[in-house]
Structure formats: structure tokens, C-alpha cells
């Protein structure tokens, strides 16, 4: 059957997308079971914990979600007997829930917790208290018997201050703790220290941007660092708190083991008891390898190849969670010796007749090569006329220090199955391609990212793959900033969709939370010296240059990019009579989690593009 692009009938309805888009949040071996965290879109995005036995471990209305550093992570852990420890989304206290019992609080009210880690029966967490001035953060040990719930002094402070902390790791003999620490003046991917402490003294090991310390024995610690420009695994011998030799880099692959430390729960490698290491290597997409002591590596052919986390190990078995270019997000159990791969949760294989794997492409840009993933329109029962070129959406990820991996998803198939292509761009500043690519954006936010997405769109059109008059751009948060900045530039995109996008840099700087207080200064310049740059680059300053339709969507409870940002653009467009639509979603924060929000947003986006591009979507 022949039908114009955009009008193809599709089984990927908005409610199906909402139901098929749970987030996986870690996994663990618990006795004979495997547990994993999973969001429930139909319950407002509540994060539950499920078991391979079929049971839901954390019942409604409880939700495991941390707000430490605003982005949270590491909101639950469990012991071998099946006791769950989790951070409650509402009050940010840590709770214990034994099998068959109700949750009981382990920490006093007030502070937020995240990055939970249980080692040798001892529970550690990253703690953040924004109720005091200056704000305090640190790493604490929490008694698991509940004694500290009403006695704050019983919580042991491992380290505390105005800096930021992550990845507590206890030495096997229980006498020392290692962690990652960075000043608020830098982001952790710029500069982060590896610290060792025995409770009275501390030592900072010489690192550049350390990640995830792990003790292999009392005299050796592993960590990832990027002195060579790629995050790679290093081995450090220590005596007490003293390094007794230079750190040994044990992996020289042209790939990263690690990425931007936005959330606290990710693990990019795990040591096995026999000295081998299971690690993730990222160069656009991920691969998982087993590394020997001599640094040689063997690829594990697991479907997971995007944002993979090595969540737990038990003997030769490893739990991996993440995305895949050939399946839905999931959890896999891999035996690194036998090669057996078991799907634990999710990971439904994608149907290539409805969604072909994304093509990894490299485009020429003003600042160097631009990486992207292209998803072509595909529908097994429908095709367009031979002389018609498809419309495309250029997707811009948030962060901006983040990356996309070409993952398969029903959210992408929602567009491609209807005859609308998708180009997902890792513009300069993205992770996954080394420090030099990441630092391309330093001082150039609003310039480099815009140049790169514009170059990607032109490259797609010049190759005859997309209709140059029907290319839209869509992004959220920092991606929304690039959307609006690109529309101000003009001449490339026929429409823009901004989800909770940044419109005014000075406004963002004023409302920025602690974690990102100095982030913008690295991307644009220090205030007040660079105030003129902040004004000139802000889309709100030049909103009079936007002359194409714009769809603005915003969470009412967003504390990262408050509604005032989108509303300022809305008001300016309204004054000039530019076609636009503004939607405010009650109860949503920085990112849409509720199923009704996901459904409504997709329906509005499709209808919006239909109006702009001149097609009527199939019912």
C-alpha cells in the first residue's frame, strides 16, 4: 500500500509507548532470586523493586527514588536474606523492609539519601542536607537496626562538607573507606579526586576525574580515570592510606569505562573473586568485556550495548542492566565462563520489520566530526511514493554532558512506523567519545551544539535521505535549549519541540541547584564577566528571530528548569503572533514519568508535526 510519509498506520499507539517505557534501576542477586528496580508509568512513575520469582518486593504506595544532587540514583539495595533497604521518594529517608514486614525508617527526617551500598553487612549512603547554610553533603554509615531513626548521632559520618561525594567503598578488613569527591566549582567529569580514609586521616590519590573505586584486597584498589583522555581502569597498590607505587592503567582501549556522574547508582565494572574484571567500554555504543589480570580482554556477546551498568556479580555470574540496539531495556544474567545469557527482565527483542537497527553515522561539522544515530522510516505494510522524501525529527539529548546510544525503543518506533525518520545526535560535548570531544562544548554552549545539530540536519538532507523542508528539532532540558537556540539561528528547521527547555541563561543560573551551580560557567563563561555572552546566547533575547511553529511542554514541579523559562518564550511568541502551543503538566518534574503525561505529550507532538508538515496522522 502506498501512503504519504507521516500518514502510515502504526501499532505503536501512545498508550503502548507509555506502558512499554519503564526505567530499569539496578539489579542484585538476592539468595536464589534476582531483584531489580523498575518504574511503573501507570502509577505516576513510582519505582518499585521486583523479583525473578514473580513477586513485587516494594508495594504501592512506596517508591524508591533519591533526590541527592537532584538526579538521585542508588535508591535501593538488598542483602542475601531478602531484606530491602531503600530511599523513600516522599521523605528521602532510608527504610528497611524485611520479608513480610512493613518498611521501618533507619534515618531521621530531614536529609536526603542516595547511592546506597551494603558491604560486609554495613550500610553506606551519600547524604545531602539543603536545610542548613552552607549546604552539607557527605557519606554516612547507617545502623541497620533502626536505632538511628530518632537519634541522629547514631548515624556515623564518614566524611562531610560542602563538596560532593559518590561511590563509597569499604576495604575488606573494614578499616578504610574510599570514595570519589569533587568541589562544587567543577563538575565530576572535569575534576574528581579519589580519597582514602581510616576515620581520622585522609589521603587523596593523584587522579584527574576518578570514578567508582573498588577494593580487590586490603592492599589494592581499582578505579576508573581519564588522564589519557579516555576513562580507563587503573590499579593502585596501597599500604594503609599510602600509595606504594604509581597507578597502573590496565586498559588502553579507545573507549570509555565510565561517563558523566549525573546519578549515583551506575557501575561501569565489577571485579570477580578470581581477579578478572567485567567492564563496560563505550565508544558511541557499549560493549561488555571480561579483562584478565594482564589487561587482555574478551568480548561478551550480550545484547546490552547502551548505558550498560554492571550491577552485581556472584561467582562467574554477572547482572547487567541497560539498553540495547536490538531489544527493549532490560536486565541480563551472564555467566562469563559458560557464556550462558539469561533474560531476567524486559529485553523484548525488537521486530526489524517495524524497527531496523539505528545506523551509526559520522557527519562533518564546523568544529570537527559529529556523531549521530539515524533511524529510517519503516513499515512492513506501507510505503511512500518513490519521489517523496520523508520528514525527520532531529533529537537533541539533555545534559548536555550525556549521550545517546542508538537504542531500540518503542518511543522511536512511534515515529518511524508512521513514516517520520529520526536522527539522534551526539553533538560536541557529549560523553562516550573521550574527553576532547566532551570538552568541545566548553565555553561554546549555544554555539557548538547548534552548529553540530544544524550540520547533522544538512548532512541528512544533502545525502537525499530527508526532505529539507520538513525537518523538525526536538529536545528536553539542555536539549530544549539547543532546540530554541537552533530556531533562533533559523534556516534549517521547520518546527521545534522543546520539553522543559532552557530559554534564559541568567534565569537558569539564578535558579540552578547546588550540583550544577557552576556548570553553566564552564559551558558559557564566569559571571559577571561573561554576562553579555549570557544575554546574547539566550534564546529569549532573540526570540524575535523565531519564525516557525513551536511546541513547548513543561512540568509544573520542575526544580531544575522551572516553568518560568518556557512561559517566557510562550509570552514572547504570543506577542509576535508566532504559531505556538504551551502545555503545563501538573505533578511532573524534570522529565515526564506518568503514563497519562507520556500519552498526551506524544499525541500533541504528532498532531503538531502533522499541522506543520501538512499530513494527517492515521487514527
TrEMBL record:
Residues annotated as coiled-coil are none
Pfam families assigned: Peptidase_S9 (PF00326)
Name one molecular function that GO assigns to this entry: serine-type peptidase activity
Looking at the record, the residues that make up the Peptidase S9 prolyl oligopeptidase catalytic domain are 410-614
Q: What is this protein called?
A: S9 family peptidase
Concerning PANTHER family, the annotation shows: PEPTIDASE S9 PROLYL OLIGOPEPTIDASE, PEPTIDASE S9 PROLYL OLIGOPEPTIDASE CATALYTIC DOMAIN-CONTAINING PROTEIN
The record, for InterPro entries, names: 6-blade_b-propeller_TolB-like (IPR011042), AB_hydrolase_fold (IPR029058), Peptidase_S9_cat (IPR001375), Xaa-Pro_dipeptidyl-ppase/CocE (IPR050585)
GO biological process: any one? proteolysis
